Amino acid sequence: MNSSFEPLLSDSAAGELLQLHPKTVQRMARRGDIPAFRIGKFWRYRASELESWLMLHSQLPEHSSAQHRKDTVQ
Predict the structure, then answer these.
(1) What DSSP assignment string belongs to 21-48?
(2) Distance, CA of 11 to chain centre
(3) Nearest one of 32, 30, 27, 7 to 15, comparing CA atoms
(4) What proportion of the chain, given as a percentage, has pLDDT over 70?
(5) Cα dihedral across residues 21, 26, 31, 33: positive or negative
(6) Could you tell me which residues come within 8 angstroms of residue 26 by beta carbon, excluding any fewer than 6 positions away?
(7) Whole-angstrom Cα distance, residue 70 to residue 1?
(8) I need a labelling partner for 17 at 20 to 30 A (CA). Which of 9, 37, 62, 72 fits?
(9) What is the reported pLDDT for 73?
(10) Is the full-model pTM beyond 0.90?
(11) Looking at per-residue confidence, does 5 or 67 come out higher?
């Protein structure tokens, strides 16, 4: 067996990792919003790819929308 093989995650396991409902994970996979593989009728995910995606998409811009709202109210 190849030791570099990374087991694939189910919708539920990916949802736990991302703290999202499994149906939300499926919907995001169908839209291409998160890295996923379609195997038959099932979506599968690599934890390493989800981690990279999360790090890339969790970077906050310099002026977050909350700060923008605060500035607009003042």
Answers:
(1) -HHHHHHHHHHTSS--EEETTEEEB-HH
(2) 11
(3) 27
(4) 76
(5) positive
(6) 11, 43
(7) 56
(8) 62
(9) 46
(10) no
(11) 5
